[in-house]
Amino acid sequence: MFRHTPLRYAALIILFSGAVFTAFTAGYFGMEILTEILILAILVLALDLVAGFGGMVSLAHGALMGLGAYAFVALATKGGLDPLVAAAAAIAITAGTGWVIGAICARSHGIYFIMATLAFGQMGYSYFFERPFFGGDDGMVGPGRFDLSFIGVDLNDGRSFALFCLALLGLVYLIAVATLRSGLGRSLTGVMHNEKRMRALGLTVWRVKADVFGISGAMAGLAGVLAAQHILFISPNLLHWTVSGEALVVVILGGLGTLVGPLIGAVAFVVLKHELSHVTTYWHLIVGLVLIAVVMSRANGIFGFIEARFGPRTDRLIQSIQTRDDAKEAVKDA
Amino acid sequence: MLETRNLDKSFGAVHVTRNVSLKLERGERRVILGPNGAGKTTLFNQLVGEITPDKGQILLAGEDVTNLPVARRARRGLSRSYQKNTLFDGLTVEENLELAASVHAGVAMTLWRDALQSPKVRAIVEEVAEQVNLMPHIHAKVSEISYGVRRQLEVGVALATKPLVLLMDEPTSGVGPEMAKGFHDLLAGLPRDLTLLIIEHDMDLAFAVADTITVLNYGEVVFDGLPEEARGSKLLRDIYLGAWEDA
Predict the structure, then answer these.
(1) Which of B80, B88, B161 sits opposite A190 (nearest CB)?
(2) Residues on chain B touching A174 (C-beta within 8 angstroms)
(3) Which residues of B touch A204 (CB under 8 A)?
(4) Extents of the domains making up chain A
(5) Per-residue confidence (pLDDT) for residue B227, from 0 to 100
(6) What CATH number is associated with residue B232?
(7) Is the pLDDT of residue B193 over 50?
């Protein structure tokens, strides 16, 4: 079952402070990298929810993100909807699509689940690649940034947009935590540990998987909307399976099934990518080596390693502080 | 409460259930005996819906459930424990019971609310933990408890769904005599209106808890009666001593 440990709180505080600090100190490129990290973090949180807590390793999440981006841009530019309304509709569309993919794939497991989600993802990619209405392989130009002048925010400013993405990432994180702590999330954990037993207890397993996949799809859709808002242009590449593959790499690199780990993974991946691409065009090779090293270390990603090394120590420290406080109170009472 | 009518199942040329008809009244405790390969577990698998019978009917509380999937039968009150522990290994004893109780309490699919804090779930968990003597281990992970305690938890998880009928597949499988006696006390302490169908090899336990005994051999019911009748039955002795085919 998902729990917030002191170490997880500490990691969240450090990540949040780091993001805010960067937003207020970085230049143009730094702000772009920060925004890229925040959008990727939303996508990998969506993936961690299904893969890390439900055992549903999906290669359709890139396509769900791309669908969110295309639905948003098409509804806003061709449908004439207000961008905020188009964004809400795009998120609803990806939630519904995610639910359907989850419901159909729920009966398959392991490699078959991966292949089924890959097939859905590539179907989406091919559709948008071929469809002239959506600009084919030329892609589409998105609408301008959301107009939030009614609350005094100008999203055309890079810092404001980065902070806006940070706020939405925080919201997505809270929704993921609330989902995992709800009846649905607990059942999902049960299904991952022992699907057969959950079914024997009376749970409709496919519904649990589909519902969580729908929530995850909505999060991926939001990442797509923000990606379209970020660079104001979208192309079918957003839906390509390699986007899902990269998201999976980030989740594994950070720590599958921890929620906090994928956030760390997103930071590590984007920073590595940008730093290494200055040095060599073969930056994927080095990221691959890092991933192999992380997997071979048998730790659950970077955060899994940190938890294994420092988790027991922090627990002991907090226990000793609690015992000391209890003793002080007992002395006071006496 | 639970009835089978002419249940029949074959796997290729192997006939594993032959025309089995059983009728359990509410609160009845029936033990199914039979040598290995007699078709006892296969019968259980058909009752809960994990295997579809070739022929015959299964009725639960008077309703035909033959074609219902596993989960819907469970929600109608048919629960089972397994011969091999089928638990949520990475979770605690309490969380195992909570998962089962949340399904019965109807909060297993809720959003925005912690199902495990529901008063109904808490009440079931406490009641079942007391019933199957799991209170001392309630916060321990499944991986940290002994095999015998896991057997208790196996029954506890099945009980936490508040079933009308509980099917127990060799509850004392692999436990020592001391623990087996503990299981006898545990079964004796279960509510009298709960219908129990138990597969058991431990004869002492079987005769101690059974109201009725059914003996299966080669997938066929060869004895159906009271424990006293079974105790003196030459047929039963022959089956267990392997002399049935000559009998």
Answers:
(1) B88
(2) none
(3) 71, 109
(4) 6-240
(5) 84
(6) 3.40.50.300
(7) yes
Same domain assignment for residues B105 and B158: yes
Which residue in B48, B79, B109 is closest to A208 by CB distance? Answer: B109
Asked whether B76 and B152 are in contact (CB, 8 A), the reply is: no
- Whole-number pLDDT of residue A230: 94
Name the domain boundary from B128, B162, B196.
Answer: B162
Please check whether residues B158 and B175 belong to one and the same domain: no
Helix (H) / strand (E) element for A106: namely: none
Name the domain count of chain B.
Answer: 2
Asked whether the CA dihedral A271, A275, A276, A278 is positive or negative, the reply is: positive
Structural domain for B105, as ranges: 84-162
Same domain? For B116 and B215 the reply is no
Q: What is the pLDDT of residue B241?
A: 59
Quick one: B170 and B51 in the same domain? yes
- Range name among A93-107, A185-199, B166-180 with the lowest pLDDT average: B166-180
CA distance A203 to chain B (A): 6
pTM: 0.88
Which residues of B fall within a CB distance of 8 Å from A208? 108-109
Last-in-domain residue among B162, B182, B199: B162
Is A4 touching B (CB cutoff 8 A)? no
Statement to judge: residues B157 and B220 lie in one domain: no
Decide if pLDDT at A157 tops 80: yes
Please name the member of A1, A178, A203 whose beta carbon is closest to the beta carbon of B71. A203
Looking at the fold, whether B33 and B108 belong to one and the same domain comes out as no
Whether residue B94 sits in one domain with residue B38: no
For the stretch B25-39, pLDDT in tens is 999 999 998 888 888
- What's the confidence (pLDDT) of residue B238? 77
Residues from chain B that touch A189, judged by Cβ atoms under 8 A, are 91, 99
pLDDT at residue B72 in the model: 93
Phi, psi of B59 (to 5 degrees): -120, 130
- Verify whether the Cβ–Cβ distance A190 to B161 is below 8 Å: no
For residue range A240-258, list pLDDT tens digits in order: 999 999 999 999 999 999 9
Poorest-pLDDT segment among A116-125, A267-276, B223-232? B223-232
Largest separation between any pair of C-alpha atoms in chain B: 65
What's the pLDDT at A102? 96
Highest mean pLDDT among A186-190, B209-213, B214-218: A186-190
pLDDT value of residue B247: 43
Considering the domain architecture, whether residues B67 and B172 belong to the same structural domain is answered as yes
- Optimal mutation site among A107, A184, A201, interface B, most CBs of chain B within 10 A: A201
Alpha-carbon distance A36 to nearest alpha carbon in chain B (angstroms): 29
